[in-house]
Amino acid sequence: MIRGIGLDVVEMDRMKMIVSEKPLFISRVLTKNEFEVFESLGDKRKVEFMAGRFACKEAFSKAYGTGIGEVGFHDIEILSLESGQPVVTKSPFNGKCWVSISHTADVAVAQIILEEN
């Protein structure tokens, strides 16, 4: 049974500015494991990664029904399988989390579906 669906869109220009000018925001949003991946990327890919993870966490909080605040950014972790498929590796939800991330030059979008067992 579907518990919730969340969707979020992030503007790449805004995220590019944040990545270059607000390093504390990055550590506030990314978990230790996500930050390790982020640090291994080139500049353009860092912006895409950060925008995608931020959108995922916002989408998760919407699907969970709380918004960011009751659930913090570090309560949710999204990593990738070897194939590149994003997966939620940490969250307060006990069921299955389905995640999709996509981006263009202008926006990143993420969708989360929470499915109860």
Automatic annotation (TrEMBL):
UniProt-recorded Gene Ontology molecular function terms: holo-[acyl-carrier-protein] synthase activity
UniProt cross-references to HAMAP family, sorted A to Z: AcpS
Annotated keywords: Cytoplasm, Fatty acid biosynthesis, Fatty acid metabolism, Lipid biosynthesis, Lipid metabolism, Magnesium, Metal-binding, Transferase
Enzyme class: transferase
Subcellular location: Cytoplasm
4'-phosphopantetheinyl transferase domain sequence ranges: 4-110
Known EC number: 2.7.8.7
Catalytic activity: apo-[ACP] + CoA = holo-[ACP] + adenosine 3',5'-bisphosphate + H(+)
The name this protein goes by in its record: Holo-[acyl-carrier-protein] synthase
Residues reported to bind Mg(2+): 8, 58
Cofactor: Mg(2+)
Superkingdom of source: Bacteria
SUPFAM superfamilies: 4'-phosphopantetheinyl transferase
Annotated family: Belongs to the P-Pant transferase superfamily. AcpS family.
Role according to the record: Transfers the 4'-phosphopantetheine moiety from coenzyme A to a Ser of acyl-carrier-protein.
Species of provenance: Vagococcus proximus
